[in-house]
Amino acid sequence: MKIKDVTTKIGSGATPTGGESAYKKSGIALIRSQNVLDFTFSEHGLAFIDETQAKKLEGVTVKKGDILLNITGDSIARCCMAPEKFLPARVNQHVAIIRPKEISPEYLMYYLQYMKPYLMKICGIGGTRNALTKESIEKIPFFKQENEKGIAALLSDIDAKIDNNNAIAAELEGMAKDLYDYWFVQFDFPDENGKPYKSSGGKMVWNEELKREIPEGWKKSLLNNIAQIVTDTVSPAASPKRIFEHYSIPAFDNGKYPSFECGSKIESNKYKVPKASILVSKLNPQFKRVWKPLELTANCICSTEFMPFIAKPGYPLEFIYMLLNSTAFQRYLILCSSSSTGSRKRMQPDLCDSFSFACPEKHEVIDNFSRVIAPMIAAISSIAEENVELASLRDFLLPMLMNGQVKVKGA
Fold first, then answer.
1. What is the CA radius of gyration of the chain?
2. How far apart, in whole angstroms, are the C-alpha atoms of residue 115 and residue 408?
3. Packing angle between helix 317-324 and helix 148-184, nearest 10 degrees?
4. HSE (CB half, 13 Å, CA atoms) of 384?
């Protein structure tokens, strides 16, 4: 069979009149290629349009059970299920809607993932830019199986566990951020009596350098005083090729932990990733990308689009992690980033050294804070490592399930 035999709709969307100027803070969701990841949907950068614009795009309305497939650009062939949370949505011209009939929508989505090597092969035919046309999608070979629902259920269970883990990690990250803001932004860290410092009448003094009131005994500090950027590089020519093919960490990601990419493009040189470090992406800082390396990624390599920070003596890595995750630091990155090409903005590492913040002269507050959040950060890392294992299991099973090498009994 062909994909066209098991679908009722295959088609891409369009850009609203006015382009990005038509986007609203709320309204009808407009799904773009950056929202469509492999196996999952990302809310990062999700655009919205008003009812008038949505009416003009009514022909590309996304419905429950639809599959979203990226058809142009660097993210071509990524696909996921349409999220019910944002339906009925619309899609732009870089995303295709695939609406199945008489088969499990989840099965078809996983089948397209299985066929991704084939899609990557055909997308460059007949043009200078990679693209999947409606005709090429319709002609994709499709093989029916007896237990499509069982296969989809097994793979969906794994992805559901990954999504649930991500939700738990997001809650833990939110708790850690709230604690950081409470202690180091609102200055309600526990005083010597265990009461919130500022709210309990703790003395505040004006700091001319920071242009704000800070607790007595605190001072202005620079990021360079507590952390430094590692600039060690590795040459592919001097290292086993296998390391670069299987253990390089890409700078672009799904907003969560960087993933392994087998056969990823090798650059002229790459950073070593120290185990006790924090990674910050240089690119497009309006999207926060800060990670604590996992056991799986420690001592591997990543692209030079990262800035690996390590702690200077006397400063806990947990505090540095939260400082680099803070809203103030992200705003600083956005303010200081620039672009020579007018497209992707990037941060120059040496500018990070000048980021300033209020710091207690006595390290006791920082040490106590780090002890409180250390279990949270450890749990987040553990969850991320489990997700790497789950994703590896799913990717291992996917081709064997789709080609009939492995059977599933029941749902």
1. 24
2. 20
3. 100
4. 24
Top-ranked range on mean pLDDT: pick from 38-52, 343-357, 362-376: 362-376
CA distance 50 to 43: 18
Taking the CB of residue 231, how many other CB atoms lie within 10 A of it? 11
Residue 266 sits at the vertex; the CA angle it makes with 269 and 41, to the nearest 5 degrees, is: 115
pLDDT band at 248 (very low <50, low <70, confident <90, very high): very low
Rounded to whole angstroms, what are the CA distances from 123 to 33, 72, 128, 339? 16, 8, 10, 30
| Two structure tokens written together for 262 | 């087998």
Place of tokens 């007595």: 216
**Locus of tokens 């309204």:** 27
Residues paired with 271 in a beta bridge? 233, 302
Token pair recorded at residue 344: 């992707």
Question: For residues 381 and 317, is the Cβ–Cβ distance under 8 A?
Answer: no
Q: What is the 3-state secondary structure (H, E, C) of the chain?
A: CEHHHHEEEEEECCCCCCHHHHCECCCEEEECHHHECCCCECCCCCEEECHHHHHHCHHHEECCCCEEEECECCCCCCEEECCHHHCCEEECCCEEEEEECCCCHHHHHHHHHHCHHHHHHHCCCCCCCCECCHHHHHCCECCCCCCHHHHHHHHHHHHHHHHHHHHHHHHHHHHHHHHHHHHHCCCCCECCCCCECCCCCCCEEEECCCCEEEECCEEEEEHHHHEEECCCEECHHHCCHHHHHHCEECCCCCCCCCCCCCCCCCCCCEEECCCCCEEEECECCCCCCEECCCCCCCCCEECCCEEEEEECCCCCHHHHHHHHCCHHHHHHHHHHCECCCCCCCECCHHHHCCCEEEEECCCHHHHHHHHHHHHHHHHHHHHHHHHHHHHHHHHHHHHHHHCCCCCCCCC
Q: State pLDDT tens for residues 149-200.
A: 899 999 999 999 999 998 999 899 999 999 999 999 999 999 989 999 999 9
CA distance 180 to 188: 10
First to last CA, the chain: 24
Instruction: Count Cβ atoms below 10 Å from residue 400 Cβ, excluding itself.
Output: 12
How far apart, in Å, are the Cα atoms of 47 and each of 15, 37, 258, 342? 11, 16, 24, 21
